[in-house]
Design a protein that fits this description.
Oligomer: single chain
Low-confidence stretches: none
Number of helices: 9
Shape: elongated
Distance between the termini: 74 Å
Structural class: mainly alpha
Largest sheet: none
Helix content: over 70%
Order of helices and strands: HHHHHHHHH
Strand content: under 5%
Amino acid sequence: MPRTKGDHEARRRDVSEAVWRVLAAHGFGGLTMRTVAAELGATTGLLTHYFPAKRDLLAHALDLLDRRSAARPRRVALRGLPAVRAALLDILPLTPAATDSNRIWVSSWDTALADPALGEGHAERYARSRDRLRELVAAAQELGELPPGDPGRIAAGAQAFVLGLVVQALFDPAAFPPERQTELLDGYLGALASSPGPS
């Protein structure tokens, strides 16, 4: 009996779940056709229907990571500096799930840096994140909660700060537990809010 479109979509979801489990367990360094096939309980031949080459598998994994990150529950803050803070807290590895997701993101950097096309996709993802953050910063400036200045520059600095904090927390979780990460972020935002802005 021929497979239906529904069967194909269900199988594709199964494959995506297997890719995600391999990423969670081994990062991008352990993502191969063989490991995904073993996780799925299938042959590597079956996977070639979905990913003709390793690069296709990597591109799918990056897209999957992006979609899962976008679908994650977010903190709710209406506007202003609390909204900026909420967006930055959502990036940090403050929970086991957020830690797993950040481990996968950091492990993806080497893969993206090694392939210009994949790297371009990563650059676009980070640019979209900065754009969203820039809008929140601009709203906080309108409310007088952040000093005047280029909101894009402030957003880029805030993104760089939290990504650096992510790396430190992943490598040294004892020195950067969730409460310490939050304290450091609040200190950063407090200094930002009290700075005089451009002269």
